[in-house]
Description:
Blueprint (H helix, E strand, L loop, with lengths): L31 E6 L3 H14 L4 H21 L3 E9 L2 E8 L25 H8 L2 E7 L2 E9 L8
Helix pairs in contact: 1-2, 2-3
Amino acid sequence: MTDDVRGSGPPSASDGPPRPGVSIATGAEPAVDQSFDGDSLYAVRATVAAHASEAGMPEGRVRNVVLAVHELVANAVRHGAGQGQVRLWVTGDGICCEVTDAGIAPAGADGASSRDAAQWPVEHGHGLWLVRKIADQVSLESGPSGTVAVASFHLGSLRVMS
C-alpha cells in the first residue's frame, strides 16, 4: 500500500521495487547507504546530520531532517524487523532519504503491531505524524516483504508544525 502525503512522490510499487543502492528518484548512487538496528540510532543521526549540514541546509532544517529520519528508523526498529537500511541522496535542491526494513514483526513480539505501516494511526505524538509535518514529501509502501519510507527535504524550507 502506498501513502503519498504531499506532491508527487517517488515511483509507486507499480513501478517495481527500487534496486538496492540506487535512488528510486534519480538512479544516482546514495551519499549514505547504512544498515541500522536498535543499537545504531545515534550513528544514523550523526551521519544524517553531517550530510544535511554539508548539503548547505540551515541548522534548523538539519535538525528537522535528523528528527524525521530518526523517527522512520525508530519505527522500523520498533514495528518492523528490528533492523533495516537507510539511504540518503543529496540533490541540487535538497535531500531525499529512504528507510527500508525487511518486514513487520509478528503481532505480540515486544508489543509490536502486525498492521500495515501505512495504516498506523497518525495522531499527535506519533512519529509518522511528525515526519509528515516536517518533511516536504513523504511516501510509505508496506507489504509482506517490508516497508519503504521515503522523505524529501528542500534546501532552506523550514516547515513549521501547526
